[in-house]
Amino acid sequence: MTVVVGYMPTAPGHAALDAAILEAERRGTDLVVVQPRPKRRQPPEVAEDIDVERDKLARSGVPYELREPDHDSDPADVILDTARERRAELIVLGIRRRSPVGKIIMASTAQRVLLESPCPVLSVKAVYD
């Protein structure tokens, strides 16, 4: 069994990764980090941020795999396909606040994963100072 986490270098993404590492440790299982490639070039600080997260993963001791699907891939599809393929026991997602209008106009990745997931989903909010 596996824990799958959808990761982006954002505050909710960091919170999701931290929670996923803890869940994988607690469950004694491996972790698959799904990190979609952005459509545009990343600024240097984002690349550094990702390196810090890779170091965190390595230090955790949790066996992990990093999947970086093409930018044309729908993140929800990749997360759901990975969960099915790996028979995940948990998906972890970082969520952010959305306005009521934003919820109506655009369905989020988190919403699709919550509705279509083959396993439980843990949604995590970032702690803001």
Automatic annotation (TrEMBL):
This is Universal stress protein. Pfam families: Usp (PF00582). Belongs to the universal stress protein A family. CDD domains: USP-like. Residues 2-125 form the UspA domain.
